[in-house]
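Worked example 2:
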Amino acid sequence: MAEPDDELFLGEWMDGRRSREDLEAQVGAEAAEAYSTILKEVDTWTLPPVDKEAGLDRLRSLRNENPPAGKQVRMTPVRWAVAIAASVTLLVVGYFAFQGSGPTQYQTAYGETTKFTLPDGSTVTLNTSSMASFEEDTWKENRQIQLEGEAYFEVARGARFTVSLDENTQVEVLGTRFLVRQRENYLTVACYEGLVGVNSADGQDSLRAGSILRYDGDSLAIAEVEVLRPEWIINPGATSFKDAPLGEVLHALEAQYGVKVLAITGVDVSRPYSGSFVNSDIKLALRMVTEPLSLSYEEISDGNYRVY
């Protein structure tokens, strides 16, 4: 809402005694644009036809029935402008409210995690280098979360929503604990409790508690999961995998440390890896991934590594 000084200033601007640049300096560029947009719209309004004589007769009749009491004030042109400006201020407030505040968004940088609560009481823990967003104001009508990266969900009893990874891939949930991870072409969905449904361009799959789905862009596999929660939830100092494709593990290293890890031609990135790497030392983490697979690594430039 504009302050009284702003309203007087708006009246002068509407009266042509202040420029657009003056207005922006007084109320800011965004508000000035909104005022201009509203006034342009008001200029297009068309009043319905009015019977002037009938209106005057009705006004005289009302004045005779209810004579004015107290002081009468004549509105000067400036006061008219101020009154209109106050009305425009209300319109602008409504305009901004109509526009809404946009989606609620959470994001983590390399090596960070964060936890937040959805409007229905469910909790979401974002892993490193991930982002989640949802429309809090319209949650009851649109129970959908946009996810990039990896997140662990604990769904409140009776709650139901959809996690969208892209236009073709959604995870539907009902009273469960589950993980969703998408790094490059690798998709992992693990169900620890309850039931989740995975809808993608390749079809639909249902996961019950204790199962994990993996898709590497070419093939899909469902296996058993032996833990009750992701390892990075239980032990934030490490990231663990069981029978995960090496390519997925290398992408997880990139997300954790903000580096590039490339496998040279001849290294089978579909080869399964079971184990973990630390989240605090990139070189130790690379050793923990490569040595069990009889592979090696080298740093080819700052922040760039090659696995061979």
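The chain has three domains: 1-43+76-100, 104-233, 237-307. The domain at 237-307 is CATH 3.55.50.30 (Phage tail protein beta-alpha-beta fold).
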